[in-house]
């Protein structure tokens, strides 16, 4: 019996990719606003696509949750390089930490649903941690090398402080509080004069 032929994978059409990206952006907002049980039909409608298009890209709610989460991690990882190329070290670190606050808002809603899928921390969540740690380490090391941040500042301590604010606060203004904390953390990380 001859071997079964497989079709080479092809790049998605431009309009299909635009639809996918629009669905992801609308879904992130919906999940952040309404929780992981946000209406998929409402997401499709707000993304200006039919339910069939949404389900073609994301056959289940879980697939959409996971894709939103992965997209946010990719944005964080890509932002580190972009900010490092275009901003002074401390400003790059500050901008990335602000983006991390937005990520935590999404993670706060999505991570529990992802964890429930597999009965514990999902591989998606675990894999994202390494990318996030790598990005903050690069930014902090760059700021230390420039002399803007003192030696000994632990990148993960900065993340833990931001996550702590996000998960300890149930008030609706926690993102603003977390942003203020970014400035406090940056100021506290500067070398002593």
By CATH's scheme, which homologous superfamily of the largest domain applies?
Tetracycline Repressor, domain 2
**How does the helix and strand content classify structurally?**
mainly alpha
Please tell me the total number of domains: 2
Total strand segments: 0
Low-confidence stretches: none
- Helix and strand string, N-terminal first? HHHHHHHH
CATH-scheme architecture of the largest domain: Orthogonal Bundle
Strand percentage lies at under 5%
Helix content: over 70%
- Largest beta sheet, briefly? none
Radius of gyration: 19 Å
In short:
The protein is mostly helical. It is built from 8 helices and no strands.
What does this structure look like?
This protein has 193 residues and is mostly helical. It has two domains: 14-59, Homeodomain-like (Arc Repressor Mutant, subunit A), CATH 1.10.10; 63-189, Tetracycline Repressor, domain 2, CATH 1.10.357.10. It is 75% helix and 0% strand. The chain contains eight helices and no strands. It has helices at residues 14-34, 40-46, 51-57, 61-86, 89-118, 123-146, 155-168, 174-189. The radius of gyration is 19 Å and the shape is elongated. The N and C termini lie far apart (78 Å). The model has no long low-confidence stretch (mean pLDDT 83).
